[in-house]
Amino acid sequence: METTTSLTGPMDLTEHLNAVRDAALRQIEDAADSDALAAVEAAVVGRDSEVAAARRGLGQMPAEERRDAGRLINEVAQEIQAALEARSEVLAAAAQSARIQAEAIDVTLDYQAVPVGNLHLIQQVIDEVSDIFVGLGYHVAEGPEAELAWYNFDALNTPADHPSRLGMDTMYVDYGNPEDEMNLRSHTSPIQARYMEQHEPPVYIVAPGRAYRNDTIDASHLPVFHQIEGLAVDTNITFSDLKGTLAEFARQFFGPETKVRMRPHFFPFTEPSAELDVSCFNCDGPGSTCRVCKGVGWLEMLGCGMVDPNVLTAVGYDPDELTGFAFGMGVERLAMVRHGIDSIRHFIDNDVRFLEQFRG
Fold first, then answer.
1. In this structure, are 130 and 213 located in the same domain?
2. How far is it, in rounded angstroms, from Cα 169 to Cα 167?
3. Element (H, E) at 69
């Protein structure tokens, strides 16, 4: 840009400043970054710029022309300054965008997927059985796992000198005083006794939960296992009601063609008592080479019976007015029979290969 050293009139000044302005605007527009723009700013409005030279030349002009010339210089200077500021904003935005792009992290790539879990097979069976009985009008009841011996044995017609108590004795939390002995419950039947104490009849409940016994671990036994027990107490309940209820459960759980049969048995808290068998859902009956029933055609499934009058009396019910039935089934047993599992130990091994077979 050439420097004008003499200004002879307003027209010469106007033309010169317009040329200075146009050249400055081109330089500003061509500035590629903030450093280049700073250099342009020093050249077009700094101490050695044409605009500064024009201001210094005002003193040499006639007084009557000085005012218009000063206004013209200020207008050009303001226009150049506005262009500088606008270009600075554009360059700053471009620099920020480039930095964001350069430092960006794509969170949709190379991430560690978290495996989705599912309910354990035992819990799936508990939920399914509970849902079946809820559909039949039952309620789900719960109780403590550390239980008073009174509810675990005595209230269920199993006093301290009863022979069957030895086979169901369990791990004691507090032992010695018969009035407050506490153990880990050996079945979920104590829930039934507690529920009857706290509720007026009629009673229709299922009681799922853990149970504890002093058993050695083998293919069919664990010291900690799961049970689902059921109880119905009302007027005029008969053994036929028990069989019909369990037959309906078997059809819903094992399939609509399932049949049931009952064999006499003994339980201290029911009289008469029975074992319930279900027809094998995997074969055509006796004589087959079935891996599930071993060719017998029937599968032993659960214990049941009519509630002993002594149990009703212990919880404050009148056995002359009320009757009832009870049943209890092992959850692990149900799962093993249905899915052909050969060892109960698979449920506690936490082998992912085993567990993933039973995604709900």
1. yes
2. 6
3. helix 63-103
User: What's the domain range around 30?
Assistant: 10-103
Specify if 112 maps to a domain. Answer: no
Task: Name the domain count of the chain.
Answer: 2
Nearest to 237 by CA among 305, 339, 303, 170: 305
Q: pLDDT tens-digit profile of 19-61?
A: 888 888 888 888 888 888 888 888 888 878 888 888 787 777 7
Q: For residue range 120-159, list pLDDT tens digits in order.
A: 999 999 999 999 999 999 999 999 999 998 999 999 988 8
pTM above 0.90, yes or no: no
- Tell me, yes or no, whether 179 lies in a domain: yes
Which CATH number belongs to the domain containing residue 285 in this structure?
A: 3.30.930.10
Angstrom distance (rounded) from CA 278 to CA 44: 101
Amino acid in the structure at residue 1? M
- What is the rounded CA–CA span in Å between residue 181 and residue 163? 19
Q: In the numeric block, which tokens belong to residue 154?
A: 């005595």
Which residue type sits at 223? P
